[in-house]
Amino acid sequence: MTRVLVVDDEPQLLRALRINLRARHYEADVAATAAEALARAARHPPDLVILDLGLPDLDGMEVIAGLRGWTAAPIIVLSGRSDSADKVEALDAGADDYVTKPFGMDELLARMRAALRRGPADADEPRVVLGSTVVDLAARRVTRGEEDIRLTPTEWRLLEALVRHPGRLLSQRQLLLEVWGPGYAGARGNLRLYMAQLRRKLEPDPARPRWLVTEPGMGYRFQPGPNAKDGS
Fold first, then answer.
1. Residue 25: per-residue pLDDT
2. Which of 13, 140, 164, 202 is the most exposed place for a label (fewest CB within 10 A)?
3. SS3 of 19-79
4. Does residue 9 sit in helix, strand or coil?
5. What is the pTM (predicted TM-score) of this model?
6. 60-112: per-residue pLDDT in tens?
């Protein structure tokens, strides 16, 4: 069974999540404090963590940092903090997704399934398929049929950063640091420009992107379709 660690200081929410998860055949561990969460995770490493940020003993950001020191298990933040700065900080700290309270159980379960499907960064998948377009990570080449799609070095780095983390929400700051470097952490105009260029080259309808998706106020994600991976 998939082991899920739920960390929240609201007893009623913990109970509701534990009942719902067990009814859907997850093995649910619960913790009401950061210290308890880290201890439980060390004793029984989870496959996925659902984490509130407002804990009584430590801020949830410190729990993310503690977990990321040794595990790549997906972390979904479940928090009443709706400010975009909190969301970006959690993503930069190593969270994989962010759900704002109040939330729907069906949405949370869908995000859990997506996080568990993708697992850690997909570095061993050499090819990603976007409709009729193939991104060959090993050859650093993008093709559509017999035609090469020419990307600039910066466009390639941005595309590679996204497709190596399918489904994962990457903050603007993360992408700027990874693609442009430390001196460009605030250069959001660069990111918008190059994302628009990639969409024009790769998306069937750049105004309604299917794969290179914007999460307003947070960042971007590569949203793969059901046949997006090709291990050949």
1. 93
2. 140
3. HHHHHCCEEEEEECCHHHHHHHHHHCCCCEEEECCECCCCEHHHHHHHHHCCCCCCEEEEE
4. coil
5. 0.62
6. 888 998 888 788 899 999 988 888 888 888 888 889 999 998 889 999 999 99
Query: What are 141's two structure tokens?
Result: 């080449």
Continuous H helices in the chain:
11-23, 34-43, 60-68, 84-93, 105-118, 153-163, 172-179, 188-202
Length of the chain measured in residues: 232
Which residue in this structure is represented by tokens 């998306």?
203
Q: pLDDT value at position 210?
A: 93
Report the chain's terminal Cα–Cα distance, integer Å: 30
Q: Which residue's entry shows tokens 């739920």?
A: 6
Q: Output Rg (C-alpha) for the chain, integer angstroms.
A: 19
**CATH fold for the domain made of 127-230:** Arc Repressor Mutant, subunit A (1.10.10)
pLDDT of residue 122: 44
DSSP-derived pairing of the beta strands 75-79 and 141-144: unpaired
Angle CA 92–116–109, to nearest 5: 95
Two tokens, residue 216:
């307003």
The rounded distance, in Å, linking the Cα atoms of 41 and 71 is 9
Please return the burial class of 220, using the count of CB atoms within 10 Å of its CB with bins 0-12, 13-18 and 19+. buried
Q: What is the pLDDT of residue 108?
A: 94
pLDDT of residue 47: 94
CATH number of 2-118: 3.40.50.2300
